[in-house]
Amino acid sequence: SELLKTEEIISSPSQSEPWTVLAHKKPQKDWKAYNPKTMRPPPLPEGTKCVKVMTWNVNGLRGLLKFESFSALQLAQRENFDILCLQETKLQVKDVEEIKKTLIDGYDHSFWSCSVSKLGYSGTAIISRIKPLSVRYGTGLSGHDTEGRIVTAEFDSFYLINTYVPNSGDGLKRLSYRIEEWDRTLSNHIKELEKSKPVVLTGDLNCAHEEIDIFNPAGNKRSAGFTIEERQSFGANLLDKGFVDTFRKQHPGVVGYTYWGYRHGGRKTNKGWRLDYFLVSQSIAANVHDSYILPDINGSDHCPIGLILKL
Amino acid sequence: SELLKTEEIISSPSQSEPWTVLAHKKPQKDWKAYNPKTMRPPPLPEGTKCVKVMTWNVNGLRGLLKFESFSALQLAQRENFDILCLQETKLQVKDVEEIKKTLIDGYDHSFWSCSVSKLGYSGTAIISRIKPLSVRYGTGLSGHDTEGRIVTAEFDSFYLINTYVPNSGDGLKRLSYRIEEWDRTLSNHIKELEKSKPVVLTGDLNCAHEEIDIFNPAGNKRSAGFTIEERQSFGANLLDKGFVDTFRKQHPGVVGYTYWGYRHGGRKTNKGWRLDYFLVSQSIAANVHDSYILPDINGSDHCPIGLILKL
DNA sequence: CTTTGCAAG
DNA sequence: CTTGTAAAG
After folding, report:
1. For helices B184-194 and B228-237, angle between their N-to-C axes, nearest 10 degrees
2. Would you give the distance in Å from CA A115 to the centre of its chain?
3. Straight-line distance from CA B60 to C1' C4, in Å?
């Protein structure tokens, strides 16, 4: 296998570095607040084969890189991921070569999908130090491939699907498209791939699945990302098809947000949502060593999340 | 008269404060470089009645105020002007009340003209501690009053016209409008006012009149602001009608730019243009005590200029 | 190169 | 509130 040995991967400083704990001020009902310092398992024993995947909606990659304080470079040095999945790169096709030059050595395989219908909109990427067996852009299943929302990479023992699910928009004007066309297409794509290998689905799924996944469930029943339609579609098209929400499995009853809107200073007051996920095929759910959130990493309205998968 | 006494006006720190001298690196032919430290006359004797007017194309007033380093407030404290004329405020009508609140005490009379055809475009204002006898927006002469390009204030002994002349645009696509419609309309407006009182015309006239007024005359013969059409129109519609270019009269053979394009780092290399003027009726040309440039004031692609007029 | 408004989230 | 566009200078 091309996957790296444990000692190379698990040298991540993320459990020794001083991640500041996000104060989850108002855990609701009897929910606990996720604490990345205390709620992560001990490192795997040396020699265990595994892969470390990270996912981050960067809300404009060029904006993020200007910041410098959290380039992919520094994230790599801290987290030492094997594969990084990005959403909302907002790159145009013409920007990609320039951006590739900023990648650090070792991450030699990167695959960029850009919107060709709206410039500077949406966009996804997979950046990897492992060379995939194959890569596919979009689903090929219908005409929904113009917004750069899906990249799929095939590895030895699994498919990795990185996606940025369409936002239902102000006034929910894109809700029916989202549910009836997009979610269904994605679900079919996954099922198709799963016929040959287990699937890891990650990205900004633009849905807070349960009440625990949003700071104010009552007030957001008609907000894009928490409508009953989106939540049911998430259940029916993903979970009911045998996909496991790895964070929720590992941390039932724990509040762990991955998104805080800029509009109401949400990050300071922890008015967050869990919109970013790792879902995995049931057949590999037991291989998940850790599914975690890094809420203290700034530079976007979303924070990165990670998955350590034993192979 | 409502105009202030000399001791109140000429307490300006501008001749004692350390204005850094702009290095005019390549004076052309036998032109001298304007030096605001050395080329200004001594203060007027105490008790002389005068008015101090400043003009500044601010290239977006809200952007400038964010800066804070050169708000109108600080400019007022350093220059102690009586009247400030702004161009390219880029304000909308709805922004004006908000902006008025930022004015410092004493400047209680302000008159704002905003573009109503293109939002956030153009826009002029007169801010004064002297209450004008009357104020007029636009010329009233034709249909050229939708872009907020002219404010005229009447004082005891003169009219003050503040204008932002339309740029002829990339590809000179607005050149014929500029010459045939706009310059002519402005000229008629001035002549009309001059029938009753002398006129002070100031603002961004968007024309470098002579070769001395631009860093690279040869290379800009078809650039907006230095076409022969604009230069001749400037001569025919303004100077030939009896208006005196006060800076040029005071400093013949002196290079004094007021604008440096952002596009080619023009301010560092002093690739500038003189686009901002005080023109006065011949009948009061001898009353001009000082017509000067403040090239070291940043915050815009134009710098402010000043006029001290004896009354 | 920078400001502005606009769409989008 | 912030990221992208585009128009304008």
Report:
1. 10
2. 19
3. 7
Q: Would you call A164 a catalytic residue per the annotation? A: yes
Return the nearest residue to D6, CA–C1': A119
Chain length of chain B: 311
CA of B90 to C1' of C3 (A): 9
Q: Are strands A272-273 and A276-281 parallel, antiparallel or unpaired?
A: unpaired
pLDDT exceeds 70 at position B180: yes
Residues of chain A with pLDDT under 50: 1-25
CA distance A77 to B292: 56
| B 156-195: CB within 7 Å of strand D | 166-167, 169-170, 174
Which of A164, A257, A277, A292 is catalytic? The answer is A164
Over residues B203-219, the mean pLDDT reads 96
Q: What angle do CA A81, A84, A88 make, to 5 degrees?
A: 150
Cβ contact B148:B123 at 8 Å: yes
Q: Where are the alpha helices (DSSP H) in chain B?
A: 6-9, 61-67, 72-79, 96-100, 175-176, 184-194, 228-237, 246-250, 266-269
Residue range A189-204, pLDDT digits in tens: 999 999 999 999 999 9
User: Which of A253, A300, A302 lies closest to A277 in space, CA to CA?
Assistant: A302
β-pairing, A159-164 with A199-204?
parallel
Q: How does DSSP classify residue B302?
A: B
Nearest nt (C1') from B224 Cα: D9
Cα B203 to Cα A1: distance, rounded to the nearest angstrom: 72
What value does the mean pLDDT of chain B take? 88
As a rounded value in angstroms, the CA-to-C1' distance for A137 and C8 is 23
Residue A80: closest CA among A29, A4, A162, A193: A4
CB-count exposure of residue B232 (10 Å: 0-12, 13-18, 19+)? middle
In chain B, count H helices and then E strands. Answer: 9, 16
The C-alpha atoms of residue B121 and residue B116 are separated, in whole angstroms, by: 9
Give tens-digit pLDDT for A235-264: 999 999 999 999 999 999 999 999 999 987
- Cα dihedral across residues B86, B88, B93, B98: positive or negative: negative
Instruction: Quote the pLDDT of residue B55.
Output: 97
Choice among A183, A204, A245, A276 that is catalytic: A204
Considering all CA atoms of chain B, what is the largest pairwise distance in Å, rounded to the nearest integer? 52
The two tokens of residue B158 are: 């003169």
CA A102 to chain centre: 21
**Contact by Cβ (8 Å): B258, B275:** yes
What is residue B11's predicted lDDT score, i.e. its pLDDT? Answer: 28
Residue-wise burial string across B13-46, b where 16 or more C-beta atoms lie within 10 A, e elsewhere: ebeeeebeebebeeeeeebebbbbeebbeebbee
The reply to whether B206 sits in an annotated binding site is yes
**Active-site annotation of B, residues:** 164, 204, 302
Is strand C in 7 Å reach of the CB of A174?
yes
Strand C, nucleotides covered by protein (CB < 7 Å): 1-6, 8-9
